[in-house]
Specification:
With about 160 residues, the chain is mostly helical. The protein folds into two domains: about 45 residues; about 120 residues, no CATH class. About 65% of the residues lie in helices and about 0% in strands. The protein contains seven helices and no strands. The longest helix has 28 residues. The protein starts with a helix and ends in a 7-residue tail after the last helix. The relative contact order is 0.12.
Length: about 160
Amino acid sequence: MPWLALLAGWPILLFFLPVQDPLVQLVGLRGQIFFLPFLLIGAMLESDDYYVLAKWLAVLNLVAFGFAVAEYFEGIERFFPRNAVTTNMYGSKDLIAYTEYRIPSTFVSSASYCGVMVCTMPLLLNAWTQKRTGRLEYWLFTTALVAALLGVFMGASRSWPV
């Protein structure tokens, strides 16, 4: 709890220093302060909570990978209509001599799909190496890790979205 107070106090202290326009500082304060409750919740989780979270993430990764495989074989046109929002997706046909798209799965862009797959891998790896109650969980985490790795390759992202 003292770390949370320190992490909340520092942005608030910087907010009251007249360095920039108050509206600019308010935007920066919002980004810092809204992150802190998630940090507190993550610090309060026990190892069993992480394990349950990892199981849910494994299932969600497999669902997203299922959509990515379907988009690869059926084409992204069947999943995303052409409009102003999907312009980025349809402009990413630059793989394998400009014949293949960067697969976005159920995400807005392939970069966000790849980023989520990479971010879930440490939690999945941790759960994969921990205690298991049966072979089903072992295969769930194994296939989710493989799906996450293949999802990163299918998305072929060059950078994290800003």
